[in-house]
TrEMBL record, chains A, B:
Keywords linked to the UniProt accession: Aminotransferase, Transferase
PANTHER family named in the record: ASPARTATE AMINOTRANSFERASE YHDR-RELATED
CDD domains listed in its UniProt record: AAT_like
Keyword check for Transferase: yes
The protein's name: Aspartate aminotransferase
Annotated ranges, domain Aminotransferase class I/classII large: 35-380
A GO molecular function held by the record: transaminase activity
Transferase found in the keyword field: yes
Signal sequence residues: none
InterPro entries: Aminotransferase_I/II_large, PyrdxlP-dep_Trfase, PyrdxlP-dep_Trfase_major, PyrdxlP-dep_Trfase_small
Record organism: Candidatus Lambdaproteobacteria bacterium RIFOXYD2_FULL_50_16
Pfam families hit by this protein: Aminotran_1_2 (PF00155)
Amino acid sequence: MAIAKALEASIQGSSLIRAMFEEGERRKIALGPDKVFDFSLGNPVFEPPLAVVEALKTLTQSEQPGTHRYMPNAGYKETRDYIASLMADESGLAFLVGDICMCVGAGGALNVILKCLLDPGDEVIVIRPYFVEYDYYFKNHGGQAVPVLSGPGFQIDLAAIEAAIGPKTKAVLINSPNNPTGVIYDQKALEALGGLLTKKSAELGRVITLISDEPYRALVYDEVKPPCVFNSYNNVILATSSSKDLALPGERIGYLAISPLHQDRALLGQAAPLALRTLGFVNAPALMQRLLPMVKGAKVDIEPYRINRDLLYNHLTSLGLDCVKPQGAFYLFPKCPIADDLLFCEKAQALNLLVVPGRAFGLAGYFRIAYCFQTEMIRRSLPVFTELIKGL
Amino acid sequence: MAIAKALEASIQGSSLIRAMFEEGERRKIALGPDKVFDFSLGNPVFEPPLAVVEALKTLTQSEQPGTHRYMPNAGYKETRDYIASLMADESGLAFLVGDICMCVGAGGALNVILKCLLDPGDEVIVIRPYFVEYDYYFKNHGGQAVPVLSGPGFQIDLAAIEAAIGPKTKAVLINSPNNPTGVIYDQKALEALGGLLTKKSAELGRVITLISDEPYRALVYDEVKPPCVFNSYNNVILATSSSKDLALPGERIGYLAISPLHQDRALLGQAAPLALRTLGFVNAPALMQRLLPMVKGAKVDIEPYRINRDLLYNHLTSLGLDCVKPQGAFYLFPKCPIADDLLFCEKAQALNLLVVPGRAFGLAGYFRIAYCFQTEMIRRSLPVFTELIKGL
């Protein structure tokens, strides 16, 4: 066998959930896509804002020489200046071009950050439930996840994090607005976390970096404004993308931003483009880098998301399901009415409802519904959810 | 210090050559870009073929719904079918969609392949001189480079490769047309290598995969046709990109192709998209994936490259430099007329000629000239090369 043992294990390890996805795909082909309610993937059906579509036309109609060439690994200066000014406006801190590295999506940005930070055996604290890909990302760089259960309402359990911090802790990774729960950490929660990390970094004589994964930042409801993570702690690196706010997930455009207050600001500013290069990303896609400064302020219409959230949340809670109301992102993470989340999702699938078991996010007994789809499909699914819950 | 020790070492390790690049950049700013002859980077100044420019206009003028959404990690079926048919035409083998995984450039493709193949401690044989990034790529996945010196004319030294193969050998990585030498391995050389790998795989009871990195495949001169690697050995994976043939290096579009004859074909076809996802690439940029089947047969005009090669090759050999005449790619790799390649490159830099010391490619005593630039600049540089060589 030529294949790496670790990857072979990954293929087999994900087989239960993959089998479920494949069965879903088979059903779509057999029954027709409109007969299957696929809430399993966070792949929005909505199109990018008009400003994005127009800017792409402009860029390709009057192509400047050199549009598709290599640029410095960290990205075009104009694009990085633009992102630095966004970060400065948001945080009040003096972000410079060297603090920004354009990346291949937020997943790419997280891998660059982890490559910059992790020595073999280093630990990264994550809050359960969490995006399943994080585990792979840590392992890519010799790191180890230390999952800490969230507190009530999926909020940060500060005491649990304090208990998990040890001499190998290199970073804490948070994701707000959160996938899979949709919760947002408020200013007070972030400040408390920042205070803890300041205290523990001093105690351990070792900088603990707070990595903030924020691709859903622009997708918030009910006039909630997510606080700025750079104002809660000094040693912060932010990872994000335009996948959700500009609906460009397939184009792989994102960035990382190093806090001007990070103790290793200058070294990290050198390390990030080197990691980007040596991991094989090389640079963020050129055309999409040029696009960003042209579409300042543009974002997808979040009203369809809010309508979807309300429809599903109201319906599921009316059926007696225990569910935290999401303030952002486009996921619901209700408690399963039966203990076994895998069995629950199989029963849902038998009714052509595709949802993801909570164990895929490190928290069994729950399930995730993505609601970034046409409202019409959501409406049609409601009686099927009723049938599912009543039939248990 | 928050930064990973390995990355800190990389920053420091590349400092000599980086300092040289930085000095070059300073000179360009101080003296004006036309006063500095920068042959250091393989970043072509030529524009993509007209067909590419037109196809990008078409794609963005009449954007179809879903153009920028996620697709399956391996890429659009249409694009993969198109690549599979190209590979089938070239090799006469029955490539299917599952053998192709669209990637983020060839650097991304190589990292996906290495992630699929390498267990910690596994060795990959490379032929010196070689693209310096390979060492990083191997280390990313716990692997180890085993560099083997090339034979006369930078060709494959089969005996040296045979001697280097051992129980930890997982792959041999070749690059033809070659960076930095411009040489091409012919059919006979590839068949001999294939024969050796078949024999050694059987002896060791372990598949040795031949990884062929071919981004320069379309850039060949003098009517040379590079042979098809898939016809020389069964266990082959090819990595390539559209960076050079379509002049799209900044857009990060490439792919890997698994030989239908590879012993682990099916498993590798599953492993590659999983590795692509878990490494944080997720998928190749969507718009560029759509572009490829629209521009079948398009490639950059290689005539300017040939003119540049001839100008430089003829001039340098007339000055007495020992240089293998490149048959492809856009690099020359002459022997330094003094033993110390770093000192030689510093002397060149003092005359505003920027070239890269051979030690950056694992072979001290040589230097690399990239010639993917305006012929006018090449012409102006010739007297400066004369001054440099005569002044030693």
